[in-house]
Amino acid sequence: MNETLPPCPECSSTYTYEMGALLVCPECGHEWTPAAGSAAASDDSDSGVIRDSVGNVLSDGDTVTVVKTLKVKGHPTGIKAGTKVRNIRLVSGVAGHDIDCKIEGFGAMQLKSSVVKKA
């Protein structure tokens, strides 16, 4: 209804209104701050950025730590949590595997950024 207020991020209703420091949607009842809506939009713009399990931005050459034990096909123990992986390379891999690296004792492999933390 008001041209200057953004639509509801939950249901896309245009009937939003201000209530103090919050924006409110009368149709679904969702409340949000105007800054939170713009922050969500800016997160969409940097979709090419790869982040680790806690939200740190990763780049080529970083050292990361594995945060959970991973099973490896053909290996009895797998990769244990706490294993450091040096000199990673970011790639657009298959099935979410976006880190290419060499792990001592295992060799070359690909990892998901959701299972590592920047060291």
Averaging pLDDT over every residue, what do you get? 84
> What is the number of beta strands?
9
> Which word captures the global form?
elongated
Q: Beta-strand percentage?
A: 25-35%
Strand order of the largest sheet: 1-2-3
Secondary-structure element order, as H and E? EEEHEEEEEE
Largest sheet: 3 strands, antiparallel
Written description of the protein model:
The chain is mainly beta. It is built from one helix and nine strands. Residues 37-45 have low confidence and may be disordered. Residues 50-119 form the Protein YjdM C-terminal domain. This is Zinc ribbon domain-containing protein YjdM. Residues 4-33 form the Protein YjdM N-terminal domain.
Task: Give a quick precis of the structure.
This protein has one helix spanning 34-45, and strands spanning 17-19, 22-24, 31-32, 64-66, 84-85, 89-90, 97-103, 107-112, 116-118. By secondary structure, the protein is mostly beta strands.
In terms of topology, how is this protein built?
Layout: E1 17-19, E2 22-24, E3 31-32, H1 34-45, E4 64-66, E5 84-85, E6 89-90, E7 97-103, E8 107-112, E9 116-118
Antiparallel strand pairs: 1-2, 2-3, 4-5, 4-9, 6-7, 7-8
What characteristics describe this protein?
single chain, 119 residues, mainly beta, 3-stranded antiparallel β-sheet, 1 helix, 9 strands, elongated, YjdM_C, YjdM_N, YjdM, Zinc ribbon domain-containing protein YjdM
